[in-house]
Design the sequence.
């Protein structure tokens, strides 16, 4: 049942293992928030593996208690192989709008040991803002390292968290 209240909040989380490109590993090109980073390792994923877009989709869908990205776009479906994750965000935005909601703002964190994303955070924000139809000032992306510990800190994985506020 739809809420009669005016706001909903959602959280999304995603992680992808990072591997070398073929033939050494199964890593794809490293794309985060629609920005391609020049790096020898990339995500192991059925789609293009954009960890930030995936967390963003789950935040939007989570806010409305709708099916998550894995249910929307199964990784067993051939049509989703290598798919541009922009399309997942576009579909999530469509579902949010169809349910009578709009995005107010996004706050996201990407946890990646290397490369550092400081120089491209604004490009990620601009990409997300354009997809959501909001001002760039309504989208924040923060980069964090994992202080050298665990899989993320050892450069073997990348994580993202996103929080989204929706309004009627
Ligand atoms: Zn993912």
Sequence:
């Amino acid at each position: 049942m739809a809420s009669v209240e005016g706001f909903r909040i959602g959280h999304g989380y995603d992680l992808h293992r990072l591997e070398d490109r073929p033939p050494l590993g199964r890593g794809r090109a490293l794309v985060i928030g629609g920005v391609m980073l020049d790096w020898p390792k990339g995500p192991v994923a059925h789609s293009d593996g954009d960890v930030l877009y995936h967390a963003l989709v789950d935040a939007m869908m989570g806010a409305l208690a709708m099916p998550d990205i894995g249910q929307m776009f199964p990784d067993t479906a051939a049509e989703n192989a290598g798919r541009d994750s922009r399309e997942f965000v576009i579909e999530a935005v469509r579902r949010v709008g169809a349910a009578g909601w709009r995005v107010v703002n996004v706050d996201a964190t990407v946890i990646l040991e290397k490369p550092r994303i400081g120089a491209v955070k604004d490009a990620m924000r601009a990409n997300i803002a354009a997809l959501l139809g909001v001002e760039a000032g309504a989208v924040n992306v923060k980069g964090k390292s994992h202080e050298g510990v665990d899989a993320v800190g050892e450069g073997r994985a990348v994580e993202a968290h996103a929080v989204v506020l929706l309004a009627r």
